[in-house]
Amino acid sequence: MNMRWSLLFSVTGIGVLTLGTILFLIVPTTRVIRSLHQAIEHEQLDAEERYFHRQKNRNTITHIAEIRAELPALQSLALPEGQELSFIEHIESLANTHALEETVRLLPPTTGTKTYQRKLQIILTLTGDPRALGAFLNDLEQQDPLFLITTMNIEQTEKPGVVAASIQGWVSWPEQTEANTL
């Protein structure tokens, strides 16, 4: 019986030592490994996010440089403040060149959330030959600043071969401030 008890104590002792090793060494070590794994994943995600933001900043800097290079061409599409009269005179000159009767009406400018979003509203009323009207519109399209047509109505008048056109549009009319330069 002694042998039996000693074998039982030995097996029990080995079982307790094994269980103790599992509970006090392996389980805490596994928890530490899991927490380190999670910390590594978190740091990896943070590193990827920082990399993404650096790339985004580099791309933004590149795009700003490209826009700065194109800024003079883009600014030529807008009507500089103080040049409204010369713009209207140019429209009148185009109309006279194409033998069209014209009336030009300016509406108060609308302002967007930024100073460069101001729009000078223009209403043109033209009367004359339809082909001359088409040539006028073609010439108007070719000029700077860019005149954006929002609505256009063309109607036949009582005179044969004569049409009346009502054109509404706008031209970009930014305020001249330091903020307009990048």
Describe the structure.
By secondary structure, the chain is an alpha+beta fold. It is 55% helix and 22% strand. It has a four-stranded antiparallel beta sheet with strand order 1-2-4-3, with helices on one face. Helix 2 (84-97) runs antiparallel to helix 3. It starts with a helix and ends in a 10-residue tail after the last strand.
- List segments where confidence is low: pLDDT < 50 over at least 5 consecutive residues: 178-182
CATH class of the largest domain: Alpha Beta
Strand order of the largest sheet: 1-2-4-3
Q: How many structural units, i.e. domains?
A: 2
DSSP helix count?
A: 3
Class based on secondary structure composition and strand pairing: alpha+beta
Oligomeric status of the shown chains? Answer: single chain
Rough outline = rod-shaped
CATH topology of the largest domain: Alpha-Beta Plaits
CATH architecture of the largest domain: 2-Layer Sandwich
Please give the radius of gyration in angstroms: 39 Å
The total beta strand count reads 4
The main β sheet shows up as: 4 strands, antiparallel
Proportion of helical residues: 55-70%
H-E string:
HHEEHEE
Provide mean pLDDT, rounded: 85
SSE layout:
Elements: H1 2-75, H2 84-97, E1 101-110, E2 119-128, H3 130-142, E3 147-156, E4 163-172
Annotation keywords:
Alpha-Beta Plaits, alpha+beta, 182 residues, 22% strand, 55% helix, rod-shaped, 4 strands
